[in-house]
Amino acid sequence: TKIKTITVYHCLFFPLGFYANLLLTQTPEHILTQTNNKTEILCELKKEHTGVYWYRWSRERQHFEFLVFSNTLGKATYGANVSQDKFSVQEARSQSSYSLHISHLHPSDSGTYYCSVSHSSQLLLGSGTRLSVVDALPLPPKTTQAPVTKNPVPRITKSKAASRKGPCSPLVWVPLAAGVLLLLLGLVPTAHHLYRLRRRLWLRIHRQ
After folding, report:
1. Membrane-spanning regions, if any (predicted)?
2. Could you write out the DSSP letters of every residue in the chain?
């Protein structure tokens, strides 16, 4: 049957990848979605065709699986053990593009999906769409803002306060006044001694 023949041709897909890009365009390149969601993969054709094939490559299982073939009349042929409730193909733009709809997504549905067309008895693959299904989507990275640095309030200590008052600061004139007072107290005995000597000299002069 045609389905059995398709599985034989997959070894010829990859060497003809560049030429396949001239015949079909597959979008998007990557889909990240959550469990139980649904998604859509678009395949736009640029030349006449008999229909579109859809395949899935599973890296974990190392398995290339045929999913569904949809002809120009809209009739779909599914692969073995492929759920029709999960996969469906819709046609648009006057048979120029097909979209693969996948519903009830599960992490086991993750893999690389390819649309393909038959050309010269060979199947040419699209560029592929990598589908990643996760139970919880990763949170976006938090943008860390630099903390606002507040200018510290200058604390004026007593020594700084005194130094800002100039030569009139108590720390300046108090030690100076104390030094002058000690000097005067030291001169009192000397002045008293000189006064006595002067008085004695004056008495001697008057006795003569």
Report:
1. 172-195
2. -HHHHHHHHGGGTGGGHHHHHHHEEEE-SEEEEETT--EEEEEEE-S--SEEEEEEEETTTTEEEEEEEEETTS-EEE-TT--TTTEEEEEETTTTEEEEEE-S--GGG-EEEEEEEEETTEEEE-S-EEEEEESSPPPPPP-PPPPPPPPPPPP--HHHHHHTTGGGSHHHHHHHHHHHHHHHHHHHHHHHHHHHHHHHHHHHHHH-
